[in-house]
Write a structure and sequence with these properties.
Number of strands: 6
Number of domains: 1
Largest sheet: 4 strands, antiparallel
Low-confidence stretches: none
Order of helices and strands: HHEEEEHEE
Bound molecules: calcium ion
Strand content: 15-25%
Length: 198
Amino acid sequence: MIRRLASLRKLRRDNRATAILEFALTAPVFLLLIMGIFDYCWQMYAQQVLQGAVSQSARSSTLEGYVSDPSGLDAKVRSQVLKVFKNADVHFSRKAYESFSEVSNPETFDDRNGNGVRDPGECFEDVNNNGTLDNDRGSTGNGSADDVVLYTASMKFKRVLPVWRVLGMPQETTLSSSTILRNQPYSANTSTKRVICT
Ligand SMILES: [Ca+2]
Ligand SMILES: [Ca+2]
């Protein structure tokens, strides 16, 4: 009887030790998983803040003329983002196209030998007038009258929890959001596209 009681006590001690060991092994993974979920939600929230700032400012840009005042539009978006993410580093870029259908499309070339690449002597349309064949035909900047402008805002900020640092990844992340604006037809559009065959 005494021997049986001693065995039961030993078994109970073993069970406790096993539970402690299991907890020690699984707790860090569980904690990392919880932090990862929180971090993902935080990034989703940041993306919504940035998207909201860009969309709202772009809508008002049509009414308030910010398209012709780029710094004013940038300042408005930056101000809205910094209200929530005070240490975010916000940057902007613009690419201009002649029409909506041209946004992010490549420049085209005459593939006379059908090999899928532009060879010397095959002509291409240098839409953005930079002297090279590009995968994106947009011109950097605000473009000219009546142009379509792809407006992109990017924000770089530090993540709240050290999830990525634990995994050896950078603690900072960058999100971006884009919208399309249309320049006013304030003057005749002066296209700069040319054909290059050399
Ligand atoms: Ca070719
Ligand atoms: Ca080009």
